Amino acid sequence: MSPPLLSRRRLRRGSFGGLGLVAIAYVSIDYLSPWQELQPILWAALAIAAIIRVPFYKHWSLELRAAIPFILSIIFMLSALLVEMISVRSVTAVLGLDWHKATPPLPDVGQWLLLALNDNLPETVLYILRAHIIGLHHYLMLFIMLGFSVLFNSVEAPGLGLGARYMFTMGIARLLRTIAFVSTILPSPRPWCASTRFHVPSYPHRWAQKYYVPYATDSNAIRQIIIRDKVYGFTGDHNVEFQPDWGSMNFLADFLRPTAYEGSSQWYNLLKKGGGGCNDLMYSGHMLVATLTAMAWTEAYGGYSSALIWMLVLHSAQREIRERHHYTVDCIMAIYMGIFLWKMTGLFWPIKDTLRDKRLNKLEQIQSKLVQAAKDSDLDGVRELLEEVELSGQVSRGPESRLMWLFAGATIFFTLVVVLLAFTLLSDG
After folding, report:
1. ω before 158 within 30° of 0 (cis)?
2. CA angle (101 as vertex; 193, 107 as ends), nearest 5
3. Any stretches that span the bilayer, and where are they (predicted)?
4. Which of 16, 173, 220, 255 is the most buried (most CB within 10 A)?
């Protein structure tokens, strides 16, 4: 099969038919209020269709081989999300509510441009730009649909392999995002966010009092810090921090700074409130998920439907900026990082392209035998040769796969070292 023919088949497969039509229907039905009662019917129909296709699926061996990387990727991603949840509250609590109320948002040219366009665009266009057409859960469900579409031969098997790569990339991206927004705390574009969403002390943590408060509003003091390269000012009396009784999890208190109102509950109830923060800005987690979904869809399915998903990604980005959930740079960096990390993991996880190349190479090797078997009407021989082609594309743990998990392990180790170092500094502060 020639490469142009493969490209034409991919283009036809990725058009607005099939999976693309289902994706558009899902987003449209969920957005249009009068049709929302059709959503359960749509999912019931998709579930029934998937169950019917299961007995006819021919790539269970590929799925079983990809099961272990899939499970490990889930564990890796959940671990990254746990670190992120702790850090989300930490960056909000470390400086206290007084800082959030007194610190104005940063100037954002992207927000200014959107406000300027509001005076020059028709009302219909503004209504579309402001509409909540697609959200985070839509992007996640679109990827789930993409993974299950292997049952219908819409994308290449294994579906678990695609899911493993998606979650592995998500885990790396979440860890890098956590390191980014913990490194420099940016004021929220919504100054009221911290006081409405969190119960944190009004005063800064003693660590922040020592290294930030004495110099934050004094340009001469900042100059002296640059010259002396050490802390020299008097920080004042440290406020007494509330100490919860969390048992073995007490070490989290310095990061989360719970109040007496929250500290009486279990520590994990506090973590639940870290699902979304005010200062976890650089870069946007929502736009990261949207970009990774668009990248996976483009690579696995392609066609006009992927172009539509990219348009929805841009729509989500301008809405994040318009509603001041993020600065413009947060959304731009999330799109950059999503594209970069998906391409980067593709270097270590070239499962789909490798399988295709192996099958094509094997097909070229046995082409003469296959033609001869067809001329001789030897159906058993043709079947055996085609099975050889299929088996040649089985997933194996090659050097790329081992390097991928080595990279994941190094990333987790580095993150743990950063967390332990921060805990030591907070304790000594």
Report:
1. yes
2. 80
3. 12-32, 38-56, 68-88, 294-315, 327-351, 403-426
4. 173
DSSP character string of 312-350: HHHHHHHHHHHTTSS-HHHHHHHHHHHHHHHHHHHHH--
CA dihedral of 201, 205, 210, 211, whole degrees rounded to 10: -100
Nearest Cα to Cα of residue 92 among 275, 321, 337, 219:
275
Per-residue exposure over 256-284, b if at least 16 CB sit within 10 Å of its own CB, e if not:
bbbbeebbeeebeebbebbeebbbbbbbb
φ/ψ of residue 264, rounded to 5:
-75, -20
Alpha carbon distance, N-terminus to C-terminus of the chain: 67
The answer on 51 and 85 residing in a single domain is yes
- Digit-coded pLDDT (tens) for 203-225: 888 888 888 888 888 888 888 88
Domain count, the chain: 2
Burial profile 174-213: b = 16 or more Cβ within 10 angstroms, e = fewer: bbbbbbbbbeebbbbbebebbeebbbbbebbbbbbbbbbb
Give me 73's structure tokens: 């990727």
pLDDT digit string (tens) for 21-66? 777 777 777 777 655 667 677 778 777 877 887 787 787 887 888 8
Query: Token pair of 41, please?
Result: 């019917």
**pLDDT at residue 395 in the model:** 47
Nearest to 278 by CA among 121, 99, 75: 99
Backbone angles phi, psi at 235, to 5 degrees: -90, -15
Are 87 and 227 members of one domain? no
**Structural domain containing residue 94:** 14-205+247-348
Residues 70 and 294: their CA atoms lie apart, in Å, by 20
Beta strands in 75-185 (DSSP E): none
Radius of gyration of the chain (CA): 26
The amino acid at 238: H
378: number of Cβ within 10 Å? 14
At residue 202, the 3 state secondary structure works out as coil
* Token pair recorded at residue 260: 């007496």
Both 86 and 140 in one domain: the answer is yes
- Same-domain pairing of 227 and 255: no
How do residues 64-113 score in pLDDT, each as one tens digit? 888 888 888 888 898 888 888 888 888 888 888 889 888 899 999 999 99
